[in-house]
């Protein structure tokens, strides 16, 4: 007798962050009690940042042609899956990917879970760390985030100029 398994279903980042947050929440509560709020936040920040760099490197390994702005854009469906983000793309070419987020379900989810105080650390702070691991020649600037109370997020990914040694 054989068992048919359904095809692998890739979950979106929103669902992945929810699962992670459900695990992190009780650990964070204990760390706050044992080490204090600031130390607990610092530990979360360091651990999540390191995990994001590692995740970026793992995704980079899957790119047979190497990473680029275009290959990064092709991954964006994972962050947008489940209507997680409402975005407005401003520029999308070989050198840049710029967009604004007008609705962020990540922020809404952390608020509902009682984790709004570390939502930035659990999600937003990962963005620059992920791209650092994925494509070190692409930099992110984002002065505004919904998570921190701004009305929008302004993602600006920019391919950095090649150094003379690389040319």
Helix content: 40-55%
Annotation, overall tally of beta strands: 4
User: What structural class do the secondary elements suggest?
Assistant: alpha+beta
Report Rg. 17 Å
What is the mean predicted local confidence, pLDDT? 92
Which of globular, elongated, flat, extended, rod-shaped describes the shape?
Answer: globular
Portion of residues in beta strands equals: 15-25%
Oligomer: single chain
Largest sheet: 4 strands, antiparallel
Order of helices and strands: HHHEEHHEE
Structure description:
The chain contains five helices and four strands; from the N terminus they run αααββααββ. With 167 residues, it is an alpha+beta fold. The chain has a four-stranded antiparallel β-sheet. The protein starts with 12 loop residues before the first helix and ends in an 8-residue tail after the last strand.
Short key terms for the protein model shown above:
167 residues, alpha+beta, 4-stranded antiparallel β-sheet, 5 helices, disordered C terminus
